[in-house]
Design a protein that fits this description.
This protein has a domain at about 5-145: Orthogonal Bundle (Hypothetical protein af1432). Helix content is about 50%, strand content about 0%. It is globular and about 40 Å long. Helix 2 packs antiparallel against helix 3 and helix 2 crosses helix 7 (about 135-145). The protein has nine helices and two strands.
């Protein structure tokens, strides 16, 4: 299973501790972990598996180590958009169950449907990469509040910035994000960004 897995040891195999990539990956993953556990705590009625969420949050972005993203210290050979499915492959090689590995593949944007992969000729396997379980959706949602650079590495983004980023990839992404807000509530939202939604504003 996954209950006794040490995510830090796995990360260290792919991002040495003295690298920029390691520092960014750990910082980002911890920020996402802390937020997704807070979301889970406020949605106990959905009975999320918090142990699974904590582990998945720490490992969901491990695939960035295989991509070419010099600004965050990654010098692999794949485009950054590939980091989701590459992360799944890493976690499966490490012996983690599919239940954990799928978080890596399904967290990008608000998920990437197969139709979009084919239509846009994305460099991804032709399969749905959409969050399906409650836990996958929670992690995908929490991840949108943090970037891997600048102040958003540790400080949650304003909702307006999240919408701005997602809008580049079409209205479907915005609708899926709105659905996540409706499912889990609103977090770290500045009043000018609330778009009139009733929510839990931190």
């Amino acid at each position: 299973m996954y209950r006794d897995v040490d995510p830090i040891k796995i990360i260290q195999k792919y991002a040495p501790t003295d690298t920029l990539a390691y520092n960014i990956l750990i910082t980002h993953s911890m920020a996402v972990r802390d937020l997704v556990l807070k979301i889970a705590d406020k949605n106990k009625h959905l009975a999320p598996d918090t142990e699974l969420l904590a582990l998945a949050a720490m490992l969901h972005d491990i695939g960035i180590t295989q991509t070419l993203a010099p600004d965050i210290g990654c010098f692999g050979r794949h485009p950054y958009i590939c980091h989701g499915y590459l992360g799944r492959e890493i976690l499966e090689r490490e012996g983690l169950p599919e239940q954990v590995a799928l978080f890596a593949e399904r967290h990008t944007g608000t998920g990437i449907p197969r139709e979009e992969i084919v239509r846009l000729n994305l460099p991804l396997p032709h399969r749905d990469m959409m969050p399906l379980s409650v836990e996958e959706k929670m992690l995908c949602y929490a991840d949108k509040f943090f970037s891997k650079s600048g102040s958003s590495l540790t400080k949650p983004k304003k909702l307006s910035k999240i919408y701005e980023n997602l809008s580049k990839y079409g209205e479907d992404n915005l609708r899926r994000f709105d659905a996540m807000i409706g499912m889990f509530g609103m977090y770290y939202v500045h009043s000018e960004d609330s778009r009139g939604k009733v929510s839990d504003v931190e």
